[in-house]
Amino acid sequence: MTPLDALNYLNAIQEMIKSILSDALDLEADDLDLNTNLEDFGIDSIIATALVDQLNNQLGLKLKPNRFVDYIYEYPTID
After folding, report:
1. CA nearest neighbour of 16 among 32, 1, 3
2. Is 9's pLDDT higher than 80?
3. Neighbours of 38 (CB within 10 A)
4. What is residue 57's predicted lDDT score, i.e. its pLDDT?
5. What is the pLDDT of residue 68?
6. pLDDT in tens, 55-72
7. Would you state the pLDDT for residue 79?
8. What is the Cα–Cα distance from 8 to 44, expressed in whole angstroms?
9. Radius of gyration of the chain from Cα atoms?
10. How far apart are CA 3 and CA 10, in angstroms?
11. Where are the alpha helices (DSSP H) in the chain?
12. For the stretch 40-63, what's the b/e string if a residue is b when 16 or more beta carbons lie within 10 angstroms of its beta carbon?
C-alpha cells in the first residue's frame, strides 16, 4: 500500500465514522468536526453500541461495544 492509498483509506474510514455518528446523533455529517472530542457529542451507551456494531459490520472488525469508553480514551477524536 502506498502512502497515498493509506491516506485515502484513512479518509474513507473517517467519512464512514462521521456518517454513522451523524445518523446516530441526528446531525449533518458536515457539522461533525474531525478534531472534536467524541465525548463532547454526548454519546450514550445505546449510541456507542450502534456505532461499534456498524463499524464492525462495515469494516469487518471485532470491537466490543462495552469497551467504547476505552476506545474514546485511546482515540478521542475522529481524526
Report:
1. 32
2. yes
3. 20
4. 92
5. 75
6. 899 889 898 888 877 877
7. 83
8. 30
9. 12
10. 10
11. 3-25, 45-59, 68-74
12. ebebeeebbbbbbebbeeeeeeee
Closest CA to 52 of 63, 44, 41: 63
Between 73 and 51, where is the model more confident? 51
Amino acid occupying residue 65: P
pLDDT tens digit sequence for 30-50: 888 889 888 888 877 788 888
Please report where in the chains the cell 469497551 appears, as a residue. 67
| The residue to which cell 445505546 is assigned | 46
Q: How far is CA 55 from CA 3, 4, 49, 63, in A?
A: 23, 23, 10, 8
Give the Å distances, CA to CA, from 30 to 14, 22, 26, 34. 12, 9, 12, 10
Distance CA 16, CA 55 (A): 8
Nine-digit cell string for 58: 462495515
